[in-house]
Design a protein that fits this description.
With 311 residues, the chain is of the alpha/beta class. It is 31% helix and 26% strand. The structure holds zinc ion (ZN).
Length: 311
């Protein structure tokens, strides 16, 4: 196995035009940090046409014309920052007089951060970690991580012609930057996959959003599981003509226990002799009847005689 093949395999660089020599790995200080530097070259035969003037290459109008060196950030190797010092082939078009550099799949044109590093940053961003930490781990600046994530968000395209048959709606408090107090999220009830997060949970914004889906997609929605936030009802009726609304069990229980507590407090305030009893044993009133103890007699504060829980 040649040294080029070994290096390319270790660094996962998928470009057949890279070449590495025997002594290509060295330890160097880059921006004051001890780093691994891989020195390589990128060269191939002159392309068949000039990318600038478009003229084809009859009679070798495009020739090799020196090299240009650049330092490309790679994902770290054994927790050491790693760089590729790449000597790229330059070409000269005799037809238009312009020069251009050999292109490679390992880094974008005019960029010094390898595509592997960009991918690694994107994968790290899936975890609960700060942009600053990601930047530190990849030896890049905070601004680089931030702009890369912004670019990735731009690429996120929502499919407007499909919605799963069973949806769940909910809201949560997201970031300070959004206008509304609560953000909205909805997911596929069967897979649990989050389909999208919207910065505003108010009715006009939701209707505007869901109406951007095709009619066929909206008609395919059979059920929507949600809480009792009233604008959601209007949104479902307006946007999903065939959908049934399912109220979340948790919210029904929450509503019932709130109502029961409110009644208890009202009763407490009207009846002074029972005030302490109802205040102290509020949990017993919420307990399921079959779970109450009907065996053991014991002493209870506020009650004169021995009693069981059920009494
Ligand atoms: Zn040209």
């Amino acid at each position: 196995m040649s040294i080029t093949h070994s290096i390319v395999s270790v660094l996962n660089l998928k470009d057949p035009h890279l070449h590495f020599s025997e002594d290509c790995v060295s330890s160097q200080s880059i921006r004051g940090v001890d780093s691994l530097v891989f020195s390589g070259s990128l060269s191939y035969d002159p392309p068949s046409s000039c990318p600038l003037c478009g003229s084809s290459n009859p009679g070798s109008a495009i020739i090799k014309h020196g090299t240009k060196s650049s330092l490309i950030t790679l994902p770290s190797v054994s927790r050491r920052p790693a760089y590729l010092r790449l000597k790229k082939q330059r070409f000269l078009c005799k037809h238009c007089g312009h020069t251009f550099t050999a292109s490679t799949s390992i880094v974008l044109p005019h960029c010094f951060i390898s595509n592997n590093t960009r991918l690694s940053i994107a994968l790290d961003a899936k975890m609960k970690t700060s942009e600053k930490d990601i930047a530190f781990r990849h030896s890049v600046s905070h601004a680089t991580v931030n702009s890369l994530l912004q670019q990735l968000y731009q690429d996120f395209k929502v499919q407007r012609n499909f919605l799963p048959p069973h949806l769940c709606f909910d809201e949560f408090r997201s970031v300070k930057g959004v206008d509304a107090s609560m953000s909205f999220l909805f997911l596929n009830a069967e897979s649990g996959q989050i389909l999208n997060i919207l910065p505003d949970r108010r009715m006009p914004a939701l209707i505007r959003y869901f109406m951007s889906y095709s009619r066929k997609a909206r008609e395919a929605v059979k059920t929507v599981c949600m809480d009792m936030y009233s604008p959601y009802f209007s949104v479902v009726h307006h946007c999903f003509p065939h959908a049934k609304i399912i109220l979340d069990r948790f919210h029904i229980v929450q509503l019932l226990s709130r109502a029961l507590n409110k009644t208890r407090v009202n009763f407490m305030n009207q009846s002074k002799p029972h005030y302490n009893k109802l205040k102290r044993y509020w949990k017993l009133l919420l307990k399921f009847e079959d779970d109450l103890n009907d065996q053991d007699f014991k002493k209870w504060v506020c009650f004169p005689s021995l009693m069981r829980e059920i009494d």
